Amino acid sequence: IEEKVCGVEKKTTTAEAAEVTSVAPSATGECEMEFKKHPHTNCHTDHGATPIHGNYHHQSLSHGECQSKCKADSKCQGVVVHNGAKSAEGHCWLITDIDASKCQSDDGYDVWIEEKVCGGEKQTTTTEAAEVTSVAPSTTGECEFEFKKHPHTNCHTDHGATPIHGNYHHQSLSHGECQSKCKADSKCQGVVVHNGAKSVEGHCWLITDIDASKCQSDDGYDVWIAEKVCGGEKRTTTTETAEVTSVAPSATVGCKFEFKKHPHTNCYTDHGATKRKCAANSRKLSSSDFEPRRVSE
Fold this sequence. Notes:
The relative contact order is 0.17. The protein has helices at 63-71, 175-183; strands spanning 2-6, 20-21, 31-38, 41-42, 50-51, 78-82, 92-96, 104-105, 109-118, 132-133, 143-150, 153-154, 162-163, 190-194, 204-208, 216-217, 221-230, 244-245, 255-260. It contains 2 helices and 19 strands.
């Protein structure tokens, strides 16, 4: 769906994936700095960055206040902050000499690195959504199960689920093998697995009596919950993103259009849209038809 963007309007920021917090460049072509998020990452001494004040860090700051501290320090190139539940504590480390390729994967932290944006450039922001691992039901009308991912979540005793075998868990299993263990147990409704670096250890907890609303936010775990699919439906395994395709607003204050994705949606006659018909003798399109045009108010 097209949306109007005028002048050097704000960037849109959404959670996870390549998140961007930015200041819109001025219409005069000057350069500004924006912070780009590198989720589940930690950059520190001997691992991709140098803390500006040693191990000292600011506390009780929002992410925006932390980034402002960085902008006020001429040496600062980025910040390290907690994510998940600990983000509320407001810890903020300022870093310099950043080499992101040498930073470490760490589920408890996010790194925001400053990047320069000049003129009227437009940044695209995407966000992760829930992954689905599924088995296509047969065309005979039988029911099958698919597993839907609930990232950064843990369901356990008194917190949304009951472990089937107490604290016992399978080890050295892939996520697919873990889900197969669940499908083979008539009581199993889902599985809990490690994410991030610890996922390679292959720990697998089978759970039942699931109430997802009572599960806990936990950056070290993911929960996959089995859902029944019947009939001849076909489910696709995807990681959805809220994609935005955009055209940079011009440096002279005018309006342009961008396309914003609305996934798994259909708009047609009598259902939210009217289809435009093309004449049978429509002329062949030329390259000029795709050039951005000024839109009057």
